Amino acid sequence: MARGAPDPASAPRKPGGASSAPRKPGGASSAPRSTGTAAKAPVAFSWRAPGTWIEGIETLWRRSLRFRTLVVTVALTMGAILVAGVWMALAIQNDLFQSRLDQVQGDSRRASAAAQSILDASATDGDRVAAQNLMTAVRSEIVQQIPGARFSVSRIEQAPAPNAPLDITSGLDEQLVSEGMRERVVHSSADALWWQSVALPAATGSTVPGIIVGQQLNFPDVGPYELYLAFDLADADTTLLFVQRTLWLAGGALVLLVTAIAWFVLRSVTTPIAEAADTSARLAAGDLEVRLPVRGEDELATLGRSFNAMADSIQKQIKELADLSLVQQRFVSDVSHELRTPLTTIRLAADMINDQRDGFDPATARAAELMHAQVQRFEVLLVDLLEISRYDAGSVQLELEPTSLTHLAEDVIESMQQLAQQHGTDVRLVAPGGYSPVEMDARRIRRIVRNLIGNAIEHGEGRPIVITVDSDQRAVALGVRDFGLGMSAADAERVFDRFWRADPSRKRTIGGTGLGLSIALGDARLHGGTLAVWSEPGRGTHFVLTLPRVPGSELESSPIRLDPHEEGEALLDELGATQPIDIAEAAALLARDARDTQDARKGEPS
Amino acid sequence: MTSRILVVDDDTALAEMIGIVLRTEGFEPSFCADGAVAVDAFRAESPDLVLLDLMLPGIDGIEVCGRIRSESGVPIIMLTARSDTADVVRGLESGADDYIVKPFNPKELVARIRTRLRPATDAAGAVLRIGDLVVDVAAHEVRRGTTSIALTPLEFELLVALASKPQQVFSREMLLEQVWGYHYKADTRLVNVHVQRLRAKVELDPDNPKIVTTVRGVGYRAGAVT
Question: What is the enclosing helix (H) or strand (E) of B49?
Fold first, then answer.
């Protein structure tokens, strides 16, 4: 505490009469009122702690409603208690000081009045000894009035006067009295009283806050003397310290109490909220059976009831959808059976009739032929439609077995050799990788490959078709490249649409249903893989099927680059579009190409 | 000698059409439209082969298949409208040798029937050893020591195929071609299911097969002779 520190700047004040009104806090700044505590703001957290600790707090702040509310509550409570505490401390301090000041002023007046009355009653007649005795009397009178008083009496006039009694001083160093105060005491009227806050030296060597009161004493025949009385405020200071300590302790206790109360109150509110959050998370995760417990009729109960109603409704709708999906699957299955049995009969009959068409007249023979062909088309369409509806019903199960994509591609190419020859197309396989078996549904993958190659043969304009198989650490891929007419980007976007055809006027040479690529895409996705297309008018088309090595793992890129870069094109020229090729040389070239591709692929979307 | 074929199908039009096709090809068909009486019809007719629709009134085709298989090793070919995993596998597991998905064409049907009816392997006369088993091809018999093990013709053929080339690893596709007569890619589940059925009969511990061993990622091979 720095109360009553010497303050040369603070001008002495003249109280408005003996009983001055108590000063309001925040009024004129007097030295004793400048307390050190007010300047100290409470520090809630030490931010010098390690970063992890700060991070923990930040996470809590973000994530925990209870923690955040608690911190806000405690901080606001602390602020409020601090303001109240400071205000109370200042008020008490001010009051204590004022009452002491009043007392001091009263004492001073009494002492000086007693001393003055002694002086007035006496006459020295210019006798120095008498004057000196008079001074001694004054001294003892002051001591009598204020036991243990610290005071000094000194002559104002500096001119030497033979009969003037010597200045006396008792425990008060006149140096403590500021020049300003002396000036006022010297130049004011005899009964005026001035005071000033000072730091008084204490016995221990330190200082204590104190008040010096200055007045004039008029010595008969000699003239005015200054009388300074010093009063220490040690008692008041002790009282103030005690009061303040009590105040801060009570404030601290109050903060703790509020914290505890807030914690309990918050817990009663946030626990059900956390429960609701947890329950809705479980509901969102698919556990449709979870419900919130409903207690009482308050807002939380309303929340619980609404939540439960919502969960009921969701559960009901999901069940309906699931039922619907089951109905759909059953329907598909029934349609499958119901349609296939008569179709089988028709097919058998049509085939038989077709086999004997040589014995018919030309028109009937042609009719038999048409029927035969269209029954086959109908059958393929039915199979494709059923496959599609199985995807839609989500009822497709993969038959995974370790399969070498390269060997699979070889098989498919071999089985399609006849079709390729009919179109005068050379189908070539280049497989730098993809030999090691990967878990896949071979039947479906074979169907995809057959479909892609069939498409390539149909649209390849008789130019060679290059099938690439390659692998990296995470995926195996197969690319089917034709050098036919190609498609515009807008068309390429729609190739996977059902029943979509790039050019409806084009003659269908291979009886596709228009569902092939949709099914291929569905199959690729079932494997967690991708089927992508690149096409450019005049440059041909490139389909790339990419399958993850581990089913279900994320695919980031494909081992085969989708868009053929310039080098790739040059490479294919190098391979020779129509000439017989040396397999070993081609493999080496493509291995090099694959490496280049690996490098080039970085940072490019798959 | 004409082979008798029992056609179990509730769709009379289809059954009749199949009958026409079979007669054209020189088979002798008989018919049964109800699952409940199919087994009785089987006993009465004692056919050389059964064409069995999976969906039947009365008792369903899978059940009928199981009952016929429990008393005879006669070849059974399922007719199914569904190629869905569960149905086909259940049919094969209940003992069907092969299956044809509707709609099929006459040639396919006849080819499947002929494969199943063809006389036993050309390796006739030989006695093969596989694991601790003796396979007498001519007598169509498999023995462990003195105990004879009853196998269906298909299972026998499968075992003979493996035993006749003990050094070779057979891929599922090779077995499909050799045993089932598929010259194109077919359903490898046929092989898987029948290898399981064969193991159940010939292995001492089917979970730890010694006669028909799996070569992971490739196929199967005969176990070493012991």
Answer: strand B49-53
